[in-house]
Design a protein that fits this description.
Belongs to the ABC transporter superfamily. This protein is α/β, with parallel strands linked by helices. The chain has 17 helices and twelve strands. It has helices at residues 17-25, 30-34, 65-72, 95-104, 121-125, 127-132, 136-149, 165-178, 195-212, 223-229, 247-252, 257-262, 268-271, 274-277, 300-307, 329-336, 350-362; strands at residues 4-13, 39-49, 54-59, 80-85, 88-89, 106-109, 183-187, 215-220, 232-237, 240-245, 314-317, 323-327. A six-stranded mixed β-sheet has the order 6-7-8-3-9-10, with helices on both faces. Helix 7 (136-149) packs across helix 8. The structure holds adenosine-5'-triphosphate (ATP) and magnesium ion (MG). Magnesium ion is lined by residues 65-66. The site of magnesium ion has 2 residues, from helix 3.
């Protein structure tokens, strides 16, 4: 069962929202409704998030990301549609139960860390537990563990203003982790950070996720960030999800011009992996030698570096060491040049023909 499911979610702000939903369902877009003073923030959003997945919602400012997120934790009531969390319909839970789910099962991490300046780092990290009424000793123990997970073990007694922006954001993350919530909702959590710190936080989140296997919905307006973090990515435009898929789906099979224009600046060689370019071994025994090999999830850029040192196609080995495929150099070059690897066909060339005839004569 999926952990989280959005089922035909709509959020309309303004007059006659139900009528607006009918018009949107019939194909009207945001612009048509705006003329009447109605904002269609989210239009017909449907998706599922599996346990342990990082689901990224990516879109420009105003595309409806935060509104969607607030419906996922029940802070905003959908105008139409349902949110299922572990199979339970959040939209129809009584207010008290909904508050209980929100306090214990779901944690939010915002863009601005919202730390209390007059509370220590430890008290800040323990805040979610304090709200839940967890006794002091227990909450401090769990907060210390969460701070350690986030690399802040030695900072518990410090004040927030003694910490850098990245460290403050990690306290925000520790606060979310301390509550033991299964579902983390992260709204532009890294967007206020400098690029290097931001990258560091992305690495840390991926590292933590390997151990903790939370279910995470992560919102960003940065496609590179979406591609680094997301197991699946929803691209939003003007309230609608215009594509839903893996980073590879979006890069190799963009649906429509909007998504295609978005991916132009993405470095494909760092996002796509050996699995996306490999092919069946062409000859028996190919890849069975002791030359350096790569794993299916090695980024193409690193496969290039290996290819430069190996005199034949690079072997791609699975976790058991078996050859899952090979990557010939022509496929890599075609890929970096923006061609689909399968379209890479050598053209006839008189010079090459005479060179190989000479080689044959010498042999
Ligand atoms: N409470 C509200 N009342 C009226 N309109 C709203 C309300 N909240 C959001 N909107 C409108 O809904 C649309 C989507 O807003 P939302 O905040 O979800 O976008 P976003 O994708 O999170 O943008 P950003 O990247 O700037 O945070 C916007 O046009 C916004 O003005
Ligand atoms: Mg937002």
């Amino acid at each position: 069962m999926s952990r989280l499911q959005a089922d035909g979610l709509y959020k309309v702000f303004g007059r006659a929202p139900d009528e607006a939903v009918r018009r949107l369902a019939a194909g009207a877009d945001r612009g048509e409704l705006r003329a009447d003073g109605t904002t269609a923030a989210v239009i017909d959003a449907s998706f599922t998030v599996d346990p342990g997945q990082i689901f990224v919602v990516m879109g420009l400012s105003g595309s409806g990301k935060s509104t969607l997120l607030r419906m996922l934790n029940g802070l905003l009531e959908p105008t139409a549609g349902r949110v299922l969390f572990d199979g339970r319909d959040l939209t129809s839970l009584p207010a008290r139960e909904l508050r209980q789910v929100r306090a214990t099962k779901i944690s939010m991490v915002f863009q601005h860390f919202a730390l209390f300046p007059h509370r220590s780092v430890l008290e800040n990290a323990a805040y979610g537990l304090e709200v839940q009424g967890v006794p002091r000793a227990e909450r401090e123990k769990r907060a210390v563990e969460a701070l350690e997970l986030c690399g802040l073990g030695g900072w518990a007694a410090s004040w927030p203003d003694e910490l850098s922006g990245g460290m403050q954001q990690r306290v925000g993350l520790a606060r979310a982790l301390a509550t033991d919530a299964d579902l983390l909702l992260m709204d532009e959590s890294f967007s206020a950070l400098d690029p290097l710190i931001r990258r560091d936080m992305q690495d840390q989140l991926l590292e933590l996720q390997k151990r903790l296997k939370k279910t995470i919905v992560f919102i960003t307006h940065d496609l590179n960030e979406a591609m680094r973090l997301g197991d699946r990515i929803a691209v939003m435009r003007d309230g609608r999800i215009v594509q839903l898929g893996s980073a590879e789906d979006i890069l190799l099979r963009p649906e429509g011009e909007y998504v295609a224009s978005f991916i132009q600046d993405v470095d494909r060689s760092r996002v796509l992996t050996a699995a996306a370019v490999m092919t069946e071994p062409e000859r028996d025994g190919e890849g069975e030698c002791d030359c350096p090999s790569v794993s299916p999830d090695t980024p193409v850029a690193e496969v290039c570096a290996v290819s430069a040192r190996v005199p034949h196609p690079v072997a791609v080995r699975d976790a058991d060491g078996n050859v899952a495929g090979t990557v010939p150099r022509e496929r890599l070059v075609a890929f970096i040049g923006g061609q689909e690897p399968d379209d890479a066909r050598p053209v006839p060339c008189a010079w090459a023909a005479s060179a190989s005839a000479k080689e044959a004569a010498h042999a």
